[in-house]
Structures are given as structure tokens and as C-alpha cells.
Amino acid sequence: MHHVIVHNHPLSRLDWNHLHRSEREITNEKRKAIEDMISSGMGGMDSFRYMAHDAGGDECVGHTAKDHLNCVNIIKMEAVKGGDAQNMVDMLHAQSVEETDFFFRVKFNEEGRFCTVFWRDTMMMEDYDLFGDVVVFDTTYHETIESFKWLFETFKKSMRGRCPVTLLKDQDHAIASAIEQVFPETRHRLCLWHLHQNAVSHFGQLKRDRSFKDMFHKCLSGCDTEEEFESCWMLMIQTYALEKYPWFERLYKIKTKWCTTLNKDFFSAGLLSSQRSESTNHSLGFNTNKSTTLSKFYEIFVDKVADWRKKEKNDEFQCSRKIPHSALPLTGLLGHAAKVYTLRFFSDFETEFIKCISACCTHTHVEDNIMFYVVSTESDGIKHRVKYDCSNKLISCSCKKFESVGLLCFHCLRVLNINSVCEIPNCYILKRWTKVAKSELWDRFTINEVGIGCKTKNGVPWRHEMARKYYNLLLQCQENDQAREIIENSYSRDFVTINTMIGSTTSTKQVEHSDGNVNVLDPEHSVTKGRSKRIKGHFQRNKKKKKSGDTSSELPPKEFGSKTPVVRLFY
Q1: 378: helix, coil or strand?
Q2: What is the spatial distance between Cα 306 and Cα 300, in angstroms, rounded to a whole number?
Q3: Among candidates 240, 180, 178, which has minimal Cα distance to 208?
Q4: What is the spatial distance between Cα 70 and Cα 49, in angstroms, rounded to a whole number?
Q5: 386 and 362 in contact (C-beta within 8 Å)?
Q6: How far does CA 61 lie from the centroid of its chain?
Q7: Which of 152, 214, 423, 467 allows an S-S link to 182, with CB 3.0 to 4.6 Å?
Q8: Could you tell me which residue, 376 or 553, shows the higher pLDDT?
Q9: Between the CA atoms of 247, 251, 252 and 255, what dihedral angle is there, to the nearest 10 degrees?
Q10: Whole-prediction pTM value?
């Protein structure tokens, strides 16, 4: 009887081999691939199924689905291992180092906890320089006057002190007070949609009264003159006995903030409500919930902005190559508009042009080489006065649509048509509505600058290109034993050489922490409705309180962030 050293029977079934711990390993390379898939929006099991499909089956991956999900959880936990707020501040600071004009500010409470944050990237600042005359502001939660004041002041600093011409907001006292202090020269406008909803929600019996809704809507945006507005308002108050309701009295006192008739001298880009801002909140809401971390919200927001900019680039491309469709011949004023305006704005211009065809125009008199006209339509009978200086190609209308929207009204177009004007005067073509609205940015930014071109962060394009090359090479070698041997020997040799080089470089390189980083505490978690406070456990009850004299961990300053940008003198 003797001992046989070599096993003469299998230790495990062949189809179980990939399940043994010794055969399962998530290498650094596989972990990096998992991180890329997770950051692109793939779920844990989706990324595992993709790797299994690419490898040729679950047994060929080199780890199980459970190992994969554990790795995904570890990746997510490591992202906030230093604290959620700390991680977000680090991400903002890292972006400010990478992007020169990136701006952010973080505000802390008295305990040093993260409480308020604001950021904007370079392209946001450039867009504001081009289109910042109208700003829509919306908030989901009610804050204090000081909170909004800090936000507006920080916003103003980030935009080099430039204030918007018109700011559209909802009916919130704290926001209104903050705007008056920070933007005293800005025209404050109230969201008409919110006003309409508040009007019918305050009074139960009026919710079902269609005539009241129509009359109130006319007071909001359907009157052409101040006299017509006053008459319509008084008729509504008397018809529905609204004198006893203080809400309507307070609303009338601030009529200059919501009545479109009284705001025609100020440019508003045709925006009457903050629904565009709320649609932004809605689009982000699909990817966020109450358990979403701050850093995750930042990543979702950055990805969403990137999607919007891709769509914007596609729209710019389509406008540059497409000719708008029209039921009318693209000649004269309409043809000129098709060449200069974007596809969407051309549709608005076409609507006005069609109206001008059926409009009645009467020449009244001439004064100092300026011709005066009265233009009206049979449908409404409202007469608008148009002045036209043919020598200087200057035109104006009493409806003031161009002043508020930047689009010539059909009253002006009718007069231009009568005077055989075939092109829109240059002074009435706002660049913001044209196909070349952002041509300044096209000239200023190069292919490698922020917002333009392909991202090269972390060498992602190079890695993918090399992976494709090697993958195609492996496909060619898999049927040839000699070629496979060459690949394996080459890999072994290169593996040793590269690890030796990287190891020596890493050992001599010291990690430098930016002086701008601070220790940030997470904000206090609020208890949601319907949940009672959790009973403290043994370790929490016995946890020692920090002594007042303990300064081992200093609190961060009240504010932290990047430097305020200087005013750009030349564009």
C-alpha cells in the first residue's frame, strides 16, 4: 500500500470550475470596464450580461453575477467614502482646475455643514453673454430671503456683474425681495401660468367657470392697450363680485409685473411663464429621487446638460443645411427670413407673414418724410399705428412686438410689403434668432476647448481605439497556434516592461493635494413626513461629545469656491 501524490479523480465537476473562489477574480482591467459601463448609465446586471455576452457565456467571464454586483456596490460606496458633500466639493474643485473659467461657490452653516451650492461651467457663461438678457428662475422649495440673496449675488459674480434685462419668476415674496436688492435695474416678471393656477385654486366656484378663465386670461396677456386692460379688469371684478377678495387687490397693485400690455417696452423673448424651467426640473426628476446623493445629482445634471448641448449642435447643423418648408414661395421678405433665421423662428415669422397678407392697411399722412399707416384685420378690428421712415428703413408699431419679442409683427410686414421692401432691415434682425447666433463662440473656441470637440479625459478615446485594434488582431490569430503564441509571448513581455515602468514612476511621484480643498460635513438629513425619529442605539448613546475646546478638526470657512471672474473688456 502506497500514497499516490497525483490525484486520480477529478476534484470538481468541469462545469463547476468557474464557480470556485480560486477561479473568480475581478481584475483592475475588468473593474475599469465595469466603472465605464456604470458611468454610462448601465445597471449592475445589464453590465454583467454585456460582459458575459462578449466573453461567450457566464462561465467565461471569470467572476459570478454576485461578485459583479458586489463590485458595483463597492464602486458606488467608494465614490462617497469621504462624505457625500466632501465628494461633491472635490468634484467641483477638480473641474475648476481642469476648466479655467469654471466657477463654483459652496456655503456652509454655523456648524460647518454643506448647505448651499452654485456652479456654472464655461459654456454657461458664454451662453449668458449672448442670451442672458432674459433669465427664467424657478424654485421647487421655499427658501429665505437671505438664501435667495446669496444665490443671486453669487450668480451675478459668476457672470462678471452683468444683470439680466428681464427676470421671470413665480409669485414668491422671498424671491421678489431678493431680486429687488440684487437686481434693482432688472425688470421683474411673474409667471402667468402660476397666476392663472392660483386664481382658479383660490376660489372653488370659479374653477368650473369657463368665462371667468377666459376673461382673466385676457387681462393677463390679451389686451393691446392699457385702457383696454383697465376696462377688462374692472368688468371682471364687477361681474364676479371680486371686490371682497384681497388676493385680487394685491395682484392689481403689482400689475406691472405680470400684465403683458404694461411690459411691451422690455425685451422678454416672448416668454410668459417659467414652464421651460419646470420642464428642466421634470427631465432631471426622471433620474433622481430622495435617496440620490449630491455627487450623483451633479453627475446627472452634467450628463443632462451634455445631452442638451448635443441636441443644440444637431439643431445648428440642421439649420445650416436645410431650407425651411413653406406653403408660400420663398421670395422677398419670406425668402430673406428663410436664409437668416433658424428653422423654428422662421415658422414664427411665416405665421406673421401669412397674417399680413390679409391685413388691411391705410396710409393716413406724411410728416417729416415719415409715413403713417393704420393696419388692422377683419377678425379682431383692432387698429395699430405704424410709422415708416423709408429713407433710413426704420419702422415701428404700436403693438411693440419687436421690442418685446424681437420679431417684426404682421402690421410692420404689411407696410414693408406695400413699399416693395424685399429684405428685412438689418436693425430688425436679432442675432439671437439667426443661424449664426453663436458664431462668436465658433471663432473663439478651438476643437480642444471646453464644449467643442471630443472629450479626451482619462485617455478614453485612445483606450477604445487600441482595444479595437487588439480585438481585431486577436480575431485573426485565434485559429493559428503560432500566431497565438506570438501574441501571448508579446503580452507577457510587455506586461513586465510596462508594470516596471509605471511602478518606478508612481514611487517617485508624490500626490499633491490642492490648497483649495477643505473638509466638508454632509448637510443634516431631514425626516420625511410620516417617519418618526429612530431610537438611538447603544453606540450612539455612549458616543462622547466633542469638547468645546477641541480644535482637532477645524470648521471650513463660511464660503468656499473659485475666484470671481474678471470683466471681459474685449470680445
Answers
A1: coil
A2: 10
A3: 240
A4: 15
A5: no
A6: 39
A7: 152
A8: 376
A9: -170
A10: 0.74
Question: Residue 272 carries which side chain, given as an amino acid letter?
Answer: L
Which one-letter amino acid corresponds to residue 417? N
pLDDT in tens, 376-435: 988 877 899 999 999 999 999 999 999 999 999 999 999 999 999 999 999 999 999 999
Q: Let me know how long the chain is.
A: 571
| Upper half-sphere CA count for residue 448 (Cβ side, 13 Å) | 3
Grid coordinates standing for 1?
Answer: 500500500
Cβ-contact 121, 95 below 8 angstroms? yes
Q: Cell numbers of 497, please?
A: 516592461
Which grid cell is 174? 422671498
Q: Which of the four pLDDT bands, split at 50, 70 and 90, describes residue 16? A: confident
Indicate if the alpha-carbon torsion angle 246, 247, 252, 253 is positive or negative.
Answer: positive
Given a contact cutoff of 8 angstroms between Cβ atoms, the answer to whether 122 and 101 are in contact is yes
* Per-residue pLDDT reduced to its tens digit, 473-492: 888 888 888 999 999 999 89
How far apart CA 89 and CA 518 sit, in angstroms, is 8
How far is CA 151 from each of CA 172, 175, 294, rounded to the nearest angstrom? 15, 10, 18
Greatest C-alpha distance within the chain: 130
Residue bearing cell 400690455: 261
- Between 333 and 222, name the one with better pLDDT: 333
DSSP string of 535-547? Answer: PP-HHHHTPPPPP
